[in-house]
User: Fold this.
Amino acid sequence: MEKTWRWFGPNDKITLDMLRQIGVEGIVTSLHHIPNGEVWSLDEVMKMKNFIEEHGLRWSVVESLPVSESIKFGGPDRDELIEKYKESLANLGRAGVKTICYNFMPVLDWARTDLEYPNPDGTSNLYFNRAEFAYFDIHILGREGAEKDYSPEVLARVEELAAGMTPEARHRLVENIIVKTQGFVNGNISEDDAAPVETFRSLLRLYDGIDRVTLRANMKYFLEAIMPVCRQYDINMCVHPDDPPLQILGLPRIVTCDEDIEWFLNAVPDSHNGLTFCAGSLSAGAHNDVVELARKYADRTHFVHARICNVMPNGDFKESTHLDPRLIDVIRTFETRRPDVPMRVDHAPLMLGDEKMGYNAGYSFHGRMLALGMVGGIMATINSEEA
Assistant:
C-alpha cells in the first residue's frame, strides 16, 4: 500500500519536508480554508497539488471534501449544494486527484471523552468513556429522552459521575466532545465559538424527524447524483465508517456494521462508490469483526486507515497498539489484495513532547511516526513472505 499521511496544509506544524524524511509517499489533505459548501476552484486545487509536488510528494487522497449537513438531512438547498460538490469533484478530477474520503455522519464527526488518557508507559491515547459521554448527553446537552438510550449499568455510572462532577470536568467534556475533535475536521464548531453547547443543540435540531431510513435515502440520492462525475473523471468516493459505530445522541448512524456497508455498496452498485476501511472506527464496536470485514470488502475499499481499538467489557474503548494482531491481519489483507490502495496511520499516542505541540487531537508527530514505522515493518514482512 502507498504510505500516506494526513497533513493539515501549509500552516501545519508538521512540514512536508519532515514527512518526506520519514518515508511518507503521499499526502492526505483538504482545502481547509474554503468554507463547507463552496466550490473548490481548479486554481485552488492546483495550488495545493503543485505545493505538495514541489516537496517531492503527491496529493494521494482528499480527506475530506465535506458533505454539507443540508445534503445529509435533505434540506431545501441540497440540490444546489450537490451541484457545487460535483463542480469541486470535476476540478479535482481535472487535476488528477482521484480518491475522495468523506463521511455521512450527522453533526458529530467522531467522538472521544478523553484526548490524553494515560498509558502505563507514559504515553497517552484517545479514549471513549461511555458513562462520561452519557453524562454529557443527559446533564450538559440536556437532550430530551436521552436516558432511554443507555443501559441501567451506564446510568448508574452516570449518577456516580454526577455526584463528583466539577465545573472544570464539565468544561473538559464539552471541549473534548464538541470542540477539539470537531472544529478542525468539518468546521461546524470552532474553538472561537462563544456558546458551543447551544451551537451543537441547534445542529442536532436539524435532524428532528430524520431516521435511519431517511438518512440512507439521502445518502443514496447524493451518491447517485455525483456518480456521473466520478465515472467521467475516474474518481473513487470512499465513505468513512461512523466513529464510534453506534447510534449516539439520538442521531441516525448508517455506516456502523457489515449490514450497513453492504447496503450502501449495493444501493449504488458502481465501483467508484466505495469504502474507507478504518479499522479503528469499525473495531470500536464490539459487534464488528474487522479482519473478516477487511476480507469481505477489500475489493470495494479505496483507502485504508491503519489503527485499531480495544473495547472494554463496560463498552468503553481506547486506541490499541499498531502491532495489534488484528491490525496485522487487516494490513495483510490489503497489502496482498490491494497493494495500490493508499494507507495512512491514525490516532497514534502522544509521546516525546507531542502533548506540548498543540497538534490536532489524534494527529501527533512522534506517535504517528512510530506507528508508520510499525506498519511499514509489517508491510515489508508480508512482502518478503510473498516473494
The radius of gyration is 20 Å.
